[in-house]
Amino acid sequence: MTTSSTAGGPGREPDAAGPATHFTVHHGGAAIPVSRGGRGPLLVLCPGLMSTRADLRELIGLLRRDHDVAAFDLRGHGRTPAAPPYTFDAFRGDLTAVLAELARREPAVPVLAGYSLGADLAVHHAAAHPGTVAGLVLIDGANPVPEPFLTEADLPGFRAMWREVAAEYAAQRGTPRQVLLGAEQLLDVNLEVDAVRSTLLDRYRRIDAPVRMIMSTAMAGHGDGAPRYNRNWRLGVERLGRARPQTRVTWVDADHRLVLTHARRIAEIIGDATRPPRGSTP
What we know:
The protein has a nine-stranded mixed beta sheet with strand order 1-2-3-5-4-6-7-8-9, with helices on both faces. Strand 8, helix 7 and strand 9 form a beta-alpha-beta unit. It has one domain: Alpha/Beta hydrolase fold, catalytic domain (Rossmann fold, 3-Layer(aba) Sandwich), CATH 3.40.50. Helices cover 38% and strands 18% of the residues. With 282 residues, the chain is of the alpha/beta class.
């Protein structure tokens, strides 16, 4: 089920390049708002945990110069209201529902880009639905790391961190940047993603489309304990390179916030990844 609004109507994103159309996809109790605008090949951008279209507005605006970009908010994020459960399968269902609606409206095969958790969702979708994406662009996510990020010893510290983060996001309630998950729900999703990534190589083997990764050199930053996580991050990419050597990887000198701090560079890399080869026929 979908509902639509006219291009440029109330709620139009001020950062979009030109007018955008808006519609809502209803799935699993979630009313998912989708915006679409720009010119060029269709690109669907899936945000990550604790990221919204509002957070990604600079990147979306840059991408719309050369792509027809469809962007949305996952359940419990941004303009999508609270809609438990907040599980990997529920988030993946949100992405699948948006892609199904786009396919119903127009038979274009999209490039699927995902950031952080959104990258993992993109890989799982492409593996389960061969022939439905023209390519994948994975931004600092979907990394088959050799070791889990969260061990039993890490849990108390991460639980305290997520409590602080959830308290900070309480001030964003009612805005396009809101995140409605509580601290324990955020921790549970991270633990689930750790488990999902332990079997990620098998998903990659099923993908029949080109894959481009854009990865941060210092995913965890430079604080105490960060070197361990950053090393695990790089080792995961190397592991994927051995299992799927045709995967192209670009490293960006940044932490996990690279979509915010290096939006222009990321847009350039995505443009290079989606540009037709020289001499090809449009």
